[in-house]
Amino acid sequence: MDILSQEIWLFFYLREALRDFSSINNRGWSNEEAEKEASRIVMDLVNKGIEDIGKVSGMKELRERVSLITAKALAIAAPLIKREKEEKIEKGEEKGNLKTSDSNVGGS
What we know:
The protein has 4 helices and no strands. By secondary structure, it is mainly alpha-helical. The protein has one domain.
């Protein structure tokens, strides 16, 4: 794949990520902490960052910038995802305990 094709794919993925973010942001967040983190995103700075990426001349620098963006996004998202999973597990365990106690009601 040549450099131009790689750049086109990069911008395609950026566009899709922004579209997904915008959709979630407009729909509303189910996780209060995620909403708080999302509110810190300044779209004007995101647009400027995309413009800056468009000015990159070499593939090495482009990869470095994309890696940095990805690392920052994962650093923000990972703790939120972990907390959300923990909350779901806690709720599932509570329901599981109720089912277990309900099954014992009939006796064996």
